[in-house]
Design brief:
CATH superfamily: FAD/NAD(P)-binding domain
Distance between the termini: 31 Å
Structural class: alpha/beta
Helix content: 25-40%
CATH architecture: 3-Layer(bba) Sandwich
Number of domains: 1
Number of strands: 21
Largest sheet: 9 strands, mixed
Low-confidence stretches: none
Strand content: 25-35%
């Protein structure tokens, strides 16, 4: 069976391998090339131990404080506020306690699949050398914040997520570069990260080409439902495929809309500054509670990035956000390189208000499957999403209940 996958980021490429494993003829299509979007410059975490939704009661309480700081962990570009209102309304509804609990349970089910799926894909395709399991640290610079975080951390234990509470001397022992501002933190021993997300995605792309998966750099503008779905391209040409997988990340929304699925997909614009070739003063990835950024010791250099800017696809980047994260990082980590020696990047995380990706059949035609909207967890959930999509294409029951991820849940 011919399966065409729209999107050659990490999710699309993982879907390609999972479907090729089942003997399908695979064609990958992307308008910009492999790893050109969020897969190029993300933080590189396989964050399967995180059960954090942007839509949460805690987030709603913090939004006013965040929005007062235009360079803080979460901001909305003023010129984009009006178009964003429907998305924000859904975010508020998703953050209601009952809805939050439902989404958290669904996210947990997907996160439990994430690392085993990655380990299987990495072993099968020979990319295991690019995965490092050194754990991660969630750090606090306030005793009050750490105390308030304990109920959530303890709840994570009930979900089977291992962590250890470390005090300042223990943290300084394992990470001597941390400053005295850090008062404590949680160590997650099972967290993993990759050498570099761009390198990983391109390595998997190269393996895909070697196993006979075809690639075409073209722009799909619509999918037309028929007995077999038809792809319509920007040059007005058309092609038929037995099955289509939409994994175009932040650019998936108009394709779904053309098939009758009005998905509330928007973008969380993420920023970072990277220092290629620079040895990190840290030995493992770290994040800073309440500050919205992470620091990752990639094999290709040091990366500082994160935060959320709601501003759509068209507005110009505001790289003062990455400068602000770097300034904060210098308070917490010694011996960081100067900001102006780094390379800046901004990428579009495809975000759904309830923080759950869209995985399921299109409304108009079951031969089209969606796999997008993973937000902060695209790299983390890519391999698991590939296995779930392969099950849907084959007509098998997936490994988890996909009702919470349905395109028709909105």
């Amino acid at each position: 069976m011919k399966v065409t996958i729209i999107g050659a980021g990490i999710v699309g490429i993982a879907c390609a391998h999972a479907l090729a494993d089942e003997g399908h003829e695979i064609v990958l299509i992307d308008h910009d090339g492999p790893a050109a979007g969020a897969s190029k410059g993300n933080a590189g975490w396989l964050a399967h131990t995180e059960i954090d939704l942007i839509a949460s009661p805690k987030m709603l309480r913090q939004v006013p404080r965040f929005l007062l700081d235009p360079l803080g962990p979460l901001t909305i570009r003023p010129s984009y506020l009006l178009p964003l209102v429907p998305w924000l309304a859904r975010l508020v509804v998703a953050a209601w306690p009952t809805n939050f609990e439902r989404s958290a349970a669904a996210l947990l089910s997907l996160q439990r699949l994430a690392l085993p799926a990655w380990e299987l894909m990495a072993a099968t395709l020979g990319v295991g050398d690019l995965i490092h399991q050194r754990g991660s640290l969630l750090l606090y610079d306030s005793e009050t914040m750490l105390r308030h975080a304990m109920p959530h951390l303890e709840r994570q234990r009930t979900w089977g997520i291992a962590w250890d509470l470390l005090e300042r001397p223990q943290l300084r022992y394992i990470e001597p570069a941390l400053t005295e501002r850090i008062v404590g933190g949680a160590y997650f021993p099972d967290m993993a990260h990759v050498t570099d997300p761009y390198l990983m995605t391109n390595r998997l792309f190269e393996v895909a080409m070697a196993r006979g998966i075809r690639y075409e750099q073209r722009r799909v503008v619509a999918i037309e439902p028929d007995e077999r779905p038809v792809l319509r391209f920007a040059d007005s040409s058309r092609e038929i495929s037995d099955r289509i997988v939409v994994a175009a990340g932040a650019w998936s929304k108009p394709l779904a809309a053309g098939l009758g699925d009005r998905i509330p997909l928007d973008t969380e614009r993420g920023y970072n500054v990277s220092f290629p070739g620079v040895s990190s003063p840290l030995s493992r990835p770290v994040s800073f509670a309440g500050h919205g950024f992470v620091v990752t010791p990639l094999g290709t250099g040091l990366r500082i990035g994160g935060a959320v800017e709601l501003g759509g696809l068209a507005l110009q980047p505001n790289h003062e956000r990455s400068r602000a994260m770097h300034t904060k990082a210098k308070r917490f980590i010694r011996d960081l390189p100067d900001y102006d020696t780094g390379s800046r990047w901004m990428g579009f995380r495809p975000s759904i208000p309830d923080s759950l990706p869209v995985i399921g059949h299109a409304r108009a035609i079951r031969q089209v499957v969606y796999a997008f909207g993973h937000g902060h967890y695209g790299l983390t959930q890519a391999a698991a999403t590939g296995r779930l999509v392969a099950a849907l294409v084959a007509g098998r029951a997936p490994a988890i209940d996909l009702a919470p991820f349905s395109p028709q849940r909105f």
